């Protein structure tokens, strides 16, 4: 049993009914999973307000409720009758983070947690850092967009940054497994919804920033997006930041941590120079020299200047933990991240790769970088997600039309929308560029078209799905892994 007062020891609260000296059996955040004598936290969600379930959860056996709103008179009368404690806080999500940490025994206090935020590069950098730290003999956990990794266990992710109760549970399991370091992606939504409260990051990392995730149920403005990203640097001991990003000063405004920098600017603590593109059959990469606090020659098997930035970020993190230079450089050379500029082997003389680029900014960065490798043709296959901003579709269409020699417009995750309507929005952005395109709604057929029409020295990019192995249509996720699809098509063509 857990004392209510011990679960609340790091937050401000008031007791509306009952006593904080009462004990509860566990903490529950899902009204469908109430157990006898539990403490239930009433979260106000985008679609459902758990305060409306208060009467039912009391009937189901909850011993205490944490609320941020007044409950109905009926619920309060029932609480009095059953001796239920009602605790009021300013923000239930914020309180949940601290209650969750207390429930699991503050596991993050015994871990070195590295939080990586930014519009691009979070996923790639987490895997690079995990690989490098493990190469030096450390036991490392990972929490991110693709999965959570605890030892040999890989848990598919539903959110980039899990809810605080889930996250603290992961931390506890990692600690029990002997893990000492955790590298995790910290999404702006996660920061906005207080999922990372309740502990202090050892490191806060900033990769880059540009407008994204702005719209209904996300961020109301770019300013809100920036402010939420910046919260990480008030929750960490040390910040490692990209000095080249135009929005850096906005992000770190009011920071309470020490700062270290990386980038191409020679004023950075660790900087890159002498960048050189590397092009081999079926593989594109970049190599460069680093100077400052670390001096070495680096080669990474992914293309573009942004790959150098990701590597610099990983090197800066490793340097903070005193990882030997040869270990960090060697691990970067062998690191591959699923769905992030992932090269796909084919028997043909073109280069094919899969990438998660799913907005105009990431697509422009990707295509601009690939252009530098002077392909015969640059072909991009992509769609846009349904139930998302229409501006994203126009933007991706414009970028593809301007930078690709051929765009193959297809479906991504149409969700509740008509795939053809989404394609029409994309075309509206593309048509003014006069760029060449074809439209093929079925994604597998679109990939087949790309393979059958690829020519020697072309670069073909399948954009938007990345690591995803499904396609979401009308609330149902159907299996769709582009790696599997490519193999099937190649076998059929043989």
Task: Name the poorly predicted regions.
Answer: none
Reported by name, the CATH topology of the largest domain is UDP-N-acetylmuramoyl-L-alanine:D-glutamate ligase
Shape verdict: globular
The domain count comes to 3
Description:
With 494 residues, this protein is an alpha/beta fold. The chain folds into three domains: 2-92, MurE/MurF, N-terminal domain (Udp-n-acetylmuramoylalanyl-d-glutamate--2,6- Diaminopimelate Ligase, Chain: A, domain 1); 104-334, Mur-like, catalytic domain (UDP-N-acetylmuramoyl-L-alanine:D-glutamate ligase, 3-Layer(aba) Sandwich), CATH 3.40.1190.10; 342-493, Mur ligase, C-terminal domain (Protein-Tyrosine Phosphatase, Chain A). The chain contains 16 helices and 26 strands. A hairpin with a 3-residue loop joins strand 17 and strand 18. It is globular and about 75 Å long. It starts with a strand and ends with a helix. The mean pLDDT is 95.
Descriptive keywords:
single chain; 494 residues; alpha/beta; Udp-n-acetylmuramoylalanyl-d-glutamate--2,6- Diaminopimelate Ligase, Chain: A, domain 1; UDP-N-acetylmuramoyl-L-alanine:D-glutamate ligase; Protein-Tyrosine Phosphatase, Chain A; eleven-stranded mixed sheet; six-stranded mixed sheet; 16 helices; 25% strand; globular
Compile the SSE list and pairings:
Layout: E1 2-3, H1 4-7, E2 14-17, E3 23-24, E4 27-28, E5 39-41, H2 54-59, E6 64-67, H3 73-82, E7 85-88, H4 92-103, E8 112-117, H5 122-135, E9 140-143, E10 147-150, E11 153-156, H6 164-176, E12 181-185, H7 188-192, E13 201-206, H8 222-230, E14 236-242, H9 248-251, E15 258-263, E16 270-280, E17 283-292, E18 296-300, H10 305-320, H11 325-334, E19 342-344, E20 351-355, H12 360-371, E21 378-382, H13 390-403, E22 406-409, H14 419-430, E23 437-439, H15 443-453, E24 459-463, E25 470-473, E26 476-479, H16 482-493
Parallel strand pairs: 4-5, 5-6, 6-7, 8-12, 8-13, 9-12, 13-14, 14-15, 15-16, 20-24, 21-22, 21-24, 22-23
Antiparallel strand pairs: 1-3, 2-7, 9-10, 10-11, 16-17, 17-18, 19-20, 25-26
Helix pairs in contact: 4-6, 5-10, 5-11, 10-11, 12-13, 13-14, 15-16
């Amino acid at each position: 049993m857990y004392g209510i007062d011990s679960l609340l020891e790091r937050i401000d609260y008031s007791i509306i009914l009952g006593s904080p000296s009462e004990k509860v059996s566990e903490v529950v955040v899902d009204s469908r999973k109430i157990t006898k004598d539990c403490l239930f936290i009433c979260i106000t969600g985008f679609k459902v307000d758990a305060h409306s379930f208060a009467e039912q959860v009391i009937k189901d056996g909850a011993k205490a409720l944490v609320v941020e709103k007044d409950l109905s008179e009926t619920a309060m009368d029932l609480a009095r009758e059953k001796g239920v404690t009602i605790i009021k806080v300013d923000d239930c999500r914020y309180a949940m983070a601290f209650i969750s940490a207390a429930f699991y025994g503050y596991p993050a206090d015994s871990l070195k947690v590295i939080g990586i935020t930014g519009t691009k590069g979070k996923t790639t950098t987490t895997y690079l850092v995990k690989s490098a730290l493990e190469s030096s003999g450390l036991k490392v956990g990972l929490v991110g967009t693709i999965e959570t990794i605890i030892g040999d266990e890989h848990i598919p992710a539903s959110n980039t940054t899990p809810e605080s109760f889930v996250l603290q549970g992961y931390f506890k399991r990692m600690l029990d497994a002997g893990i000492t370091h955790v590298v995790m992606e910290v999404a702006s939504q996660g920061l906005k919804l207080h999922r990372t409260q309740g502990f202090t990051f050892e490191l806060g990392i900033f990769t880059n920033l540009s407008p994204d995730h702005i719209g209904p149920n996300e961020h109301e403005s770019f300013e809100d997006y920036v402010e939420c990203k910046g919260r990480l640097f008030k929750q960490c001991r040390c910040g490692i930041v990209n000095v080249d990003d135009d929005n850096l000063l906005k992000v770190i405004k009011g920071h309470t941590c020490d700062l270290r920098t990386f980038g191409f600017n020679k004023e950075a603590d660790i900087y890159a120079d002498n960048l050189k593109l590397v092009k081999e059959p079926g593989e594109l990469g970049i190599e460069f020299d680093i100077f400052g606090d670390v001096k070495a020659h680096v080669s990474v098997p992914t293309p573009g200047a942004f790959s150098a930035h990701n590597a610099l970020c990983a090197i800066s993190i490793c340097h903070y933990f005193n990882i030997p230079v040869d270990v960090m450089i060697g691990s970067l050379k062998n690191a591959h991240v699923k769905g992030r500029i992932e090269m796909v082997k084919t028997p043909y003389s073109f280069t094919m790769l899969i990438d998660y680029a799913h907005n105009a900014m990431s697509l422009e960065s990707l295509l601009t970088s690939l252009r530098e490798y002077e392909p015969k043709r640059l072909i991009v296959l992509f769609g846009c997600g349904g139930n998302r901003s229409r501006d994203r579709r126009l933007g991706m269409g414009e970028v593809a039309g301007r930078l690709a020699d051929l765009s193959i417009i297809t479906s991504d995750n149409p969700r509740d929308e008509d795939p053809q309507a989404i394609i029409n929005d994309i075309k509206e952005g593309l048509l003014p560029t006069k760029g060449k395109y074809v439209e093929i709604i079925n994604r597998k057929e679109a990939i087949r078209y790309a393979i059958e029409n690829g020519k020697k020295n072309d670069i073909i990019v399948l954009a938007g799905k990345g690591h995803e192995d499904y396609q979401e249509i009308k609330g149902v996720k159907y299996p769709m892994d582009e790696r599997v699809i490519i193999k099937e098509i190649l076998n059929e063509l043989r």
